[in-house]
Amino acid sequence: MIVEDIDINVSSVDGLIKQFYKAGGFSAKKIGVAADIIEEMVKEDYFIFLTFPACIVATGTRGVIKELVKEKVIDAIITTCGSLDHDLARCFKDYYHGSFDANDEELHKKGINRLGNIFIPNESYGEIIEKKIHEIFEGKEGKYSSKEIAWEIGRNLKENAFLYWAWKNDIPVYIPAITDGAVGWQLWMLSQEKKFEIDVFKDEKELADIFFDKGKIGGIILGGGVSKHHLIWWAQFHGGLDAAVYITSAVEWDGSLSGARMKEAISWGKVKEKAKHVTVEGDATVLFPLLIASLFERIR
To answer: Which of 120, 124, 87 is closest to 104 using CA atoms?
Structure first.
């Protein structure tokens, strides 16, 4: 295949992504490969998991996740408790642009939490989450899976929340580490006052049904941690993922799951030997919107 120069006089995001593929070189071609794999997963009716950490829900990239759920492009989500935190909080309070170079001691004195270059005042996070969780779960008792908790929260949110559309469209949201965040902590506090329990085994039963019963299963994976691992852990009982696109900014030689390239999962049986897969190095807040904009141009 001949290397072709990029013509910047393009009229669409997908046109640029296709030129990335033809241009070759470093991550550009990987973005093109990723776009083709995602398109195939959608058009060939894979059961598609989207996994991501909470941090990007604190940014405008949340809107991309919301659109995928609203348009029913994906079939399930695995994420962290912080995604519930930020999705809920941002429906009622604003987050603000900040700086990586801000004085963190001064921010702490002012009651401002820094997430990368995003500033989150206390009233926009812990305070509003405590208020809303108590309102949403007032009078409710019994056992709830993390999916049921996510849907119950989504039912009470606005249309700019991905959890609202997950509830609306019956798209499951699984949070394996549900207690690792503000929402989970508030639910634990409620459990001290009444009979309220989180039953993660209910989630695991649903995941078992998916991985043992579905045909082709694919993953769009942003970052590492428990979200990525819970997907590929279950995938080994399916014989591995049938296709996967992974976006990461971590380096391979740090030994972390975030740094592990998708091909490493083949040795564990978590990605099939013949599966189409690609690891794209870079910032998900840049690459993910580009890929999904390209996808929507292809499928609409």
So the answer is: 120
- Which residue in the block uniquely carries the two structure tokens 């004085």? 103
- What is the C-alpha to C-alpha distance for residues 63 and 67, in angstroms, rounded to an integer? 6
Q: % helix / strand / coil in the chain, to the nearest 5?
A: 50, 15, 30
Contacts of 283 (CB under 8 A, 6+ apart): 249
How many other CB atoms are there within 10 angstroms of residue 236's CB atom?
A: 15
Q: How many residues does the chain have?
A: 300
How do strand 142-144 and strand 196-198 relate by DSSP bridges?
A: parallel
Name every residue whose Cβ is closer than 8 Å to that of residue 209 and which is 6 or more positions away in sequence: none
Q: What's this model's pTM, rounded to 2 decimal places?
A: 0.96
Specify the pLDDT at position 254.
Answer: 87
Query: Which residues are the active-site residues?
Result: 270
- Residue 92: other Cβ atoms inside 10 A: 14
pLDDT, tens only, 69-100: 999 999 999 999 999 999 999 999 999 999 99
What is the spatial distance between Cα 120 and Cα 112, in angstroms, rounded to a whole number? 6
| 246: phi then psi, degrees, rounded to nearest 5 | -125, 125
3-state SS string for 92-116: HCCCEECCCCCCHHHHHHCCEEEEC
CB 61 within 8 A of CB 82: no
pLDDT tens readout for residues 212-246: 999 999 999 999 999 999 999 999 999 999 999 99
